[in-house]
Amino acid sequence: MNAESAYLFRHALLRDAAYQLQMPGDRARLHALAIEAFEDLVGGRAPEPAPLGSIGEKTIKAHRSDPWASELATHARLSRSAVAAEPVHGDPLRAVQILYLRRAAENAMSQYRHHDSERSWRELAELLEGVGRSEALRRAAMSNRDAGRARAAEPLYDRALAEARRVGHRRLQGLIQGDLANLYHMTGRVSLAESAQAQMQTIFTEIGDRRLEGLSQATLGMILADSGRSKAAEETLYRALAIHREVGEREFEAIALGNLATLYRVTGRLEAAERHYMLAESIQRGTGNRRSEGVIAGNLAVLYAEMGRFELSAQTFDHAQTILREIGDRRAEGVTMGNRATLFVRAGRLDEARETYERALAIHRDVGDRRSEGADLGNLAGVHAVAGRVGEAERGYREALSIHAEVRNLRLEGAHRCDYATLLLGLGRAAEAREEWRRGSGLLREQGDLGELERKSAEWRQACTRAGVGDSGRDSE
């Protein structure tokens, strides 16, 4: 141990020893005095926000004490814990602790400091009851979700839902069911997602909240789109969009526009997709929703790559990844990274593509994003196939297809079965190849993805020619 470290160690021990030598009552008064002195410096105590979970609750107004809200909450907690029993005339510092914990949690959430936000919301939940406790737990779960920690978010949502049910708060139950629907969808549990969304829709229709009915329709549209039911998804997203515009909900409007744009891109309507992405991005830039802006930019970059505008695609990917890293959204960063690897494939930069897919897969597995894991496993298998690593390619396709079936990603299952069929044909396994091609092309046709089916059919015909078999997979005469 060097001299400087020894000094710092002894200094910390001396500080702690001096603190512990204070009588509990004296420590309590010193912590309370620290709060009073600081509040005097910043112009008084921060104002009380609206109760958590109340209708019309808005983001709290900024106050000069906000950068130190967590420390002020700690002073209040330590002052309370320094005395053995509750004060005779109540516990005024409990209210102070609640106030500054709430402000610390809100501020950390708005600044995308997910770990700090989650910690403050959980601590606050232990001080509250009923609706307040349920909403604090929900926001702690949201902080975990936004950081890509789906496994940590789910039990907090479950606790929040149980508390909302206990006190009979229907609106809050609906909100939590919607959050769970998104979480289940993100982690590939489609049947659970649909069940949670249905309960969400029932509750919001029952209480007559048009704003939240629109949110429910948008959630359903996303689930339908990602499970390959394109026509129903488009109709549902248009209903959501109409409600968002009716009630003036600009952020939700932009999200619905972005989801519609993705649907247009997948079904080959590229110009309509670009218009919708750009409008959605513009709205979210105006509202200050950085997360949504980053996600939309990443999707727009994919579209530019599909249109052959590679330089613009690369610039847009840079913009998207800058935003997503800034706000700490690991899941969205992983999705964007996987999409960027696809751009490297199109540019023939296979080593960069492989490395980027592997980095994306590490993130998907870390955050539990099974849907994206399946997508990038299949795409990476294609890179292995082009590079001649047929064993790795076959293993990758098999694992990807298993995940696609699990999460009901029928469109990508179809595309990757067609790719796998082409690989098998090159290996001389014509019978297996025919079966995979039949199943894959059938899925693409069922999903209405005729553009992708046309591309895969051209690749299949070329593979058949090289292998000396007919397009149907029969040996040529």
Main beta-sheet strand count, sense and barrel state = none
Question: What level of helicity do the residues show?
Answer: over 70%
Strand segment count: 0
Low-confidence stretches: 84-89, 473-477
How far apart lie the N and C ends? Answer: 83 Å
Quaternary status:
single chain
Mean pLDDT: 87
Secondary structure class reads mainly alpha
Strand content: under 5%
* Rg on CA atoms, Å: 27 Å
**Count, helices:** 22
H/E series: HHHHHHHHHHHHHHHHHHHHHH
Overall spatial form: elongated
Explain this structure to me?
With 477 residues, the protein is mainly α. It contains 22 helices and no strands. It has helices spanning 3-21, 24-41, 69-81, 92-110, 114-125, 130-146, 150-167, 170-186, 190-207, 210-226, 230-247, 250-266, 270-287, 290-306, 310-327, 330-346, 350-367, 370-386, 390-407, 410-426, 430-446, 450-467. α6 (130-146) runs antiparallel to α7, α12 runs antiparallel to α13 (270-287) and α16 packs parallel to α18 (370-386). The protein is elongated, with a radius of gyration of 27 Å. Residues 84-89 and 473-477 have low confidence and may be disordered.
